[in-house]
Amino acid sequence: MTRIRIEGLLAAFPKLVGTGKQHTYVETENVRYVYQPIESLYLLLVTNKQSNILEDLETLRLLSKLVTEYSYSLDEEGIGKTAFELIFAFDEVICLGHKENVTVTQVKQYCEMESHEEKLHKLVLQSKINETKDVMKRKASEIDKSKIDKNRSDKGGFMSMGSGRIETSFSEMSISSSGSGFGSGSGFGGITTDLDAFSTKPKGRQPSAATAPPKGFGMQLGKSQKTNQFLESLKAEGELIVEDLQPKVGQSRVAAAPPTDPITLTAEEKLNVTLKRDGGISNFDVQGTLSLQILNQEDGLIQVQVTFMLSLQSNIPFS
C-alpha cells in the first residue's frame, strides 16, 4: 500500500463512523474498519473483508491494552509523546499483516530487549573505565609528588666546598695542624694548641706543644698529584679553596717533652670528611678534646674562657 492510499483510508474513516452506534467495525467495498473508542480517540485496525473478524477483535483488544500500558494519558498529547514506544509495541503484535501469539508481558520484554550478556559486557566495560581512571589519578598524583620533591631539592640545593667556604682553621684559637694533609684514619691529623692560642690574632706554635705527626696512607696535600688535580679542577670551576701552607716541621722534630709550664691547655680536634665525586660533601664529622693541665695547686681555681665559631658544630668532650 502506498502512502496516499493509507492517508485516503484514514481520511474516509470519520465520515463512516456515526454517532450513537454500538458497532465496532465498518465495512466498505474493499476494506473493513475495526475500531474501539478510547475516551476521545479511536483505536483503528484496517483489514480486508476476507479476514477473521474475531481474530481482528482480539488483536484490537491487545493493542488497546498496550496503549494504556505505555501512555500516561489517553489524549492526543500523551499519545504523541509515546508514539515511538507504541509503534515498537504494535510491531511486536502484528508482523507482515498477521497477529503474533504474544501477551502484553512478552511485548514489554521484547521492547526492553534486556540481555544478560549485554549487561555483563556493560559491567566489564564500566569496570575497565573505572580502573583506567584510578590509574590516571594515581599517575597524576605521582607526577605531582615528584614535581614537589624536585622543587624542594632545587630550593635546598646541595652543600659544596665553594658554597659556604668551610672554615677549618679556627683563627681565633690559632690552632695549627701538626699533620700534613688529610691523614688516613683521623681526618686532617692531630691539631694542638697552647694557652697563648686564644688571642685575637693567630700566633706561632711553641716547640714544647708539638706532637709527632700521625702517619697516614690516604691522600695528602702537597704529596699526591691526584689531590692537586682535584683541587685545580675545583678552582677552575670557580670554587674557593683554602689551603694550609704551613711548613712541615713535625717530621724533623723530635718527640715533644712533657709540659713544664704551670698551666697547659691543649685542644685536639679530629675532622672526618667524606667528599663526593662532584665536589660536594656527603659527611662532615668534627670531634675534639679540650684538656687543661695544672701543675701548681694554687692555680686550681682559674677560669678559662673558650669561644667557638658558630658556623662549625663540634662535639667536644672535656677531660
From TrEMBL:
GO terms for biological process: endoplasmic reticulum to Golgi vesicle-mediated transport; Golgi localization; protein transport; retrograde vesicle-mediated transport, Golgi to endoplasmic reticulum. GO terms for cellular component: COPI vesicle coat; Golgi membrane. Keywords: Cytoplasm, Cytoplasmic vesicle, ER-Golgi transport, Golgi apparatus, Membrane, Protein transport, Transport. It is a peripheral membrane protein. Residues 260-319 form the MHD domain. Signal peptide: none annotated. Residues 140-163, 193-221 are annotated as: Disordered. Residues 140-155 have a biased composition (Basic and acidic residues). It is found in: Cytoplasm; Cytoplasmic vesicle, COPI-coated vesicle membrane; Golgi apparatus membrane. Oligomeric complex that consists of at least the alpha, beta, beta', gamma, delta, epsilon and zeta subunits. Belongs to the adaptor complexes medium subunit family. Delta-COP subfamily. The coatomer is a cytosolic protein complex that binds to dilysine motifs and reversibly associates with Golgi non-clathrin-coated vesicles, which further mediate biosynthetic protein transport from the ER, via the Golgi up to the trans Golgi network. Coatomer complex is required for budding from Golgi membranes, and is essential for the retrograde Golgi-to-ER transport of dilysine-tagged proteins. This is Coatomer subunit delta. The lineage of its organism: Eukaryota, Viridiplantae, Streptophyta, Embryophyta, Tracheophyta.
